[in-house]
Amino acid sequence: MKISHLYWPVTFFSTAFGAGIFFLPQAVGPGVLGMKVFMLFIVIAMSVSMMAHYLFFKFIISHPEKDFLAASSTFIGERAAAIVCVLFILSMIIIVLINFITLVNVVASFFHNGFWVRGGISLLLSAALSAAWLAFSQRVEHLISRMALVSIVLVAILAVFFLLQPAGGRQAVQASPGISLQTWLLLPIFLFTFNFTPCIQRFAKSAVRPQARSILFGKVLIMAFIVMIVIAISRLLTLG
């Protein structure tokens, strides 16, 4: 396994999907669910996504073009493959919209929360992100990977610092004898967070000899980083 095979988990954090993990502590962090429930949901989501993405990766590389649409066309026909690909794209758009709306809410909270302000922020962010996407290239991808790697190391150091801080201020979540239905309904948020299919598709297509163990190792790396960041930010929110 080459170091270039680890570009995909690094570039994951520069996507809309990777950015979504920083909104987890306020929504489904240990301070909201409790540490045991949080870790249970993380393990469930990681196990489900690991099996699904492993099969997705093997399915893509089974075709010489290493493309999802081409592989689907071979197995189920062109029309059915087109429908599946449209549904696949829609699922990605939904995740991007969820994270984009959350990003707009965070930025808008620093200004006067009016309709025109939110609209202007949405236009500026969408224009900036679209321009960055149009300017994207293979060289830029490797550059972003290296820059993101430095950022990840710095964030990890900060996460370790806040993990070592004693929690206080807010009261800890009381442990309950069972998990309520309302809590179980938060599980899809974890499943959305561990959806890396666009990164896996790009890795399978760009790598000369893509290996499944690179996917599995990358997912474990992302899981460890997500758990550390979410717990650290949750402890930071309880300080004071």
Automatic annotation (TrEMBL):
<keyword id="KW-0472">Membrane</keyword>
<keyword id="KW-0813">Transport</keyword>
<dbReference type="GO" id="GO:0003333">
    <property type="term" value="P:amino acid transmembrane transport"/>
</dbReference>
<feature type="transmembrane region" description="Helical">
    <location>
        <begin position="143"/>
        <end position="164"/>
    </location>
</feature>
<keyword id="KW-0997">Cell inner membrane</keyword>
<feature type="transmembrane region" description="Helical">
    <location>
        <begin position="81"/>
        <end position="103"/>
    </location>
</feature>
<feature type="transmembrane region" description="Helical">
    <location>
        <begin position="115"/>
        <end position="136"/>
    </location>
</feature>
<dbReference type="GO" id="GO:0005886">
    <property type="term" value="C:plasma membrane"/>
</dbReference>
<protein>
    <submittedName>
        <fullName>Serine transporter</fullName>
    </submittedName>
</protein>
<feature type="transmembrane region" description="Helical">
    <location>
        <begin position="216"/>
        <end position="237"/>
    </location>
</feature>
<dbReference type="InterPro" id="IPR018227">
    <property type="entry name" value="Amino_acid_transport_2"/>
</dbReference>
<keyword id="KW-1133">Transmembrane helix</keyword>
<keyword id="KW-0812">Transmembrane</keyword>
<keyword id="KW-1003">Cell membrane</keyword>
<feature type="transmembrane region" description="Helical">
    <location>
        <begin position="7"/>
        <end position="25"/>
    </location>
</feature>
<feature type="transmembrane region" description="Helical">
    <location>
        <begin position="37"/>
        <end position="61"/>
    </location>
</feature>
